[in-house]
Amino acid sequence: MGMGKVELEAREKRHKQNIQNAVLMTVAAVGIIAAAAVAPNAIQLLKTSGTTAKLRYRAKSVLGRLKQKGDIEFIERDGKKCVRLTEKGERTLALHREKLRLAELPKKRWDWRYRLVIFDVPEKRKGTRDRIRREVHEAGFLRVQDSAWIYPYDCEEFIALLKAELHIGKDVLYAIIDSIENDKWIRKHFGLPQK
After folding, report:
1. Phi, psi of 52 (to 5 degrees)
2. What's the CA gap between 150 and 139, in Å, rounded?
3. If 0-12 CB within 10 Å is exposed, 13-18 middle and 19+ buried, where does residue 64 land?
4. Could you tell me whether strands 148-151 and 32-34 are parallel, antiparallel, or unpaired per DSSP bridges?
5. Around Cβ 107, how many Cβ atoms within 10 Å?
6. Are 49 and 41 in contact (CB under 8 A)?
7. Over 90: is that where the pLDDT of 151 sits?
8. Cys bridge to 136: 54, 141, 168, 190, which one at CB 3.0-4.6 A?
9. Domains of the chain in sequence order
10. pTM of the prediction?
11. What is the mean pLDDT of residues 145-156?
């Protein structure tokens, strides 16, 4: 059985986000880089399959989207069009790196406390609400209710970066809790010791 339309769209969105993050990391690593050099370097970071020409095209078109979002800016240097991160781009990249750190966090000793993230974002900001869900899911959080997600390790930095990126300070609550009823399934999900 093949993938459904929603799954294909989600996969394509993740792929686009991966390319954007690879471009941001490439620019951040160098500081200022010639626009023509971004695509080949981003492709190396992606380590993905696909035709090089297609990936180059996508990486170049990503530059336009990142410029439009305010993550990068184009400057002229020695007669060449160059790219550099903006402050917003640095924040976006910091969020991405923190999310990766959480997702790849080695299983360390658990302090027997949960980190609970609850959000109440109005319907008129549905896109923001969906992005919060996507970001916490990709970072390794477990959904306990539609707008309540849990994680067993410290993630305050990630949540602070997410709030800053999405401008949603008061709509998201971060809590550290000592216990939650019927948490056996949560412990099992994260591979935590049972009581």
Report:
1. -60, -40
2. 11
3. exposed
4. unpaired
5. 10
6. no
7. yes
8. 141
9. 5-85 (1.10.10.10), 111-190 (3.30.70.240)
10. 0.70
11. 92
Are 132 and 167 in contact by the 8 Å Cβ rule? The answer is no
In whole angstroms, what is the distance from residue 142 CA to residue 103 CA?
12
Strand, helix or coil at 146? Answer: coil
Model confidence over 170-184: pLDDT tens digits?
A: 889 999 999 999 999
Of 91 and 150, more confident: 150
3-class SS at 83?
strand
Task: State the Cα–Cα distance between residues 174 and 154, nearest whole angstrom.
Answer: 11
Length of the chain: 195
In the chain, where do the E strands start and end?
A: 32-34, 72-77, 80-85, 114-119, 142-145, 148-151, 172-177
- Tokens 């401008």, residue? 167
CA-to-CA dists, residue 82 to 6, 20, 33, 88, 144, angstroms:
37, 17, 5, 18, 45
Long-range contacts of 64-68 (CB under 8 A, 24+ apart): 65/20, 66/20, 66/23, 66/24
